[in-house]
Amino acid sequence: MTSLATRAIRASISRKSANLPGQSMSRTVTTRATSHTLNTGAKIPALGFGTFQDSESQEETVSRALQKGMRLIDTARVYNVEEQVGKGVKKSGIPREDIFLGTKLWCNDYHPEDVERAVDDSLRDLDTPYVDLLLMHYPCTFKRGSERFPRDGEGRMLHGDTTYVDTWKAMERLITTGKVKAIGVSNFSKSEIETLIRESSTVPAVHQMEVHPYLQQKEFNRWLRSKGIHVVQFSPLGNMNDFYRQTGWSKEIAHMMRVIDQPVLKEIGKKYGKSPVQVVLSWGINSGRSVIPKSVVDWQVDQNLEADFELEAEDMARVATLDAKARFNDPSMDYEWRLYSDLEGIDGTVRGRTH
Ligand SMILES: NC(=O)c1ccc[n+]([C@@H]2O[C@H](COP(=O)([O-])OP(=O)(O)OC[C@H]3O[C@@H](n4cnc5c(N)ncnc54)[C@H](OP(=O)(O)O)[C@@H]3O)[C@@H](O)[C@H]2O)c1
How is residue 312 annotated by DSSP? Predict the structure, then answer.
């Protein structure tokens, strides 16, 4: 039995969730520590921790989250937080081998000759000899060089001349170096993943993509599962992240009701003594996926740690009714690449600036 599995059992025995104030009618539910098995055979926790934004707080929050029991940390080169995450991991005192740490390659480093150097940069900043997962952040390739968002004089994104298949093959080669334990993708369409499978010898271990009650992507999720590709839900709380209301490529739909205010989720939460946020995370976990909520607020991290509990089928069905097909993360116009071309929720994309 892996140390992860052992810890999972210990955690499920030792942790019982408390009822929230004013919810005395709710039942007591056991908090689990679910993990999933990737197509590499490695385990990935179902509940993890996102690190996009608030870079000045990430060292402290990553450290505290690990000490409280989080074991999956998601970061990316483009978040500019790898150094803080690395320090947080060290500060936590949790052995590296007990942590599932993933990062993402950014689009200006997609030339096959740049991939290993880019990963070395990430490993140096993360202060670790390996990552458990390396993701290609988006399928679009930007002009090779140090500019993360290379643009022409009119502000239009400059693309590179290699393809995501070339990048993927360079990522495949990294597995043999031991610097990367598994490789996967993020923000790919179905046809882009089909191309990778057809033209390479590695099926992605993970697809990290936007999934929440407002964008459930049921068909695509079924298809990914049939291919043995594990889904990690980013922005698992939908438009809770203000970024989606403020970014230049925000859509009208980003202003819809936040999940925290959603009456159906509140009602379900009452039954279990849980918050709407916990219900949303547990829905993702009970669907067989991993979730990586971001928070730099202690009580929220505590709440998120208590979000792995069983939701009854009738409540899963009620969450299923919230599928508005609302995609909040769509920089297609900005990146000059039609992202998610065969997927749901791509209407209403506007041109704008991400950063
Ligand atoms: N692959 C990609 O392209 C991609 C894209 C987006 C995100 N991601 C990854 O996914 C992670 C999560 O996504 P996200 O940051 O966009 O959004 P999210 O985790 O869905 O939502 C984050 C927002 O929810 C708040 N929050 C968290 N827990 C809460 C709780 N228990 N109660 C009330 N509010 C709570 C946070 O508050 P505070 O701000 O106060 O902490 C923050 O404002 C990122 O950090 C990143 O690692 C990947």
Answer: P
Q: Are 167 and 192 in contact (CB under 8 A)?
A: no
16-33: pLDDT as tens digits: 444 444 444 677 789 999
Query: Which domain, by its residues, includes 22?
Result: 3-330
Assess if residue 71 is contained within a domain. yes
Relative to the CA of 300, which ligand 1 atom is closest? 31
**What band does 135 get if pLDDT is binned at 50, 70 and 90?**
very high
Token couple for 240: 């809770």
pTM > 0.85: yes
Q: What is the pLDDT of residue 245?
A: 82
Residue 10 lies in a domain: yes
Residues 192-229 have pLDDT tens digits of 999 999 999 999 999 999 999 999 999 999 999 999 99
Which protein residue has the closest C-alpha to ligand 1 atom 45? 50
- Indicate whether residue 269 lines ligand 1 (CB < 6 A): no
- Rounded Cα gap, residues 316 and 285, in angstroms: 11
Residue 276, ligand 1, Cβ within 6 A: no
Q: How many domains does the chain have?
A: 1
Angle, CA of 154, 348 and 343, to the nearest 5°:
105
Calculate the dihedral angle through the C-alpha atoms of 191, 195, 198, 203, rounding to the nearest 10 degrees. -80
Examine residue 110 and state whether it is found in any structural domain, yes or no: yes
CATH no. for residue 47? 3.20.20.100
Estimate the share of the chain in helix, then strand, then coil, as percent rounded to the nearest 5: 40, 15, 45
272 counts as catalytic: no
Q: Is the pLDDT of residue 322 over 70?
A: yes
Count of all residues that appear for the chain in the document? 355
Answer yes or no: is 292 within a domain.
yes
Check the annotation: does 137 bind a ligand. Answer: yes
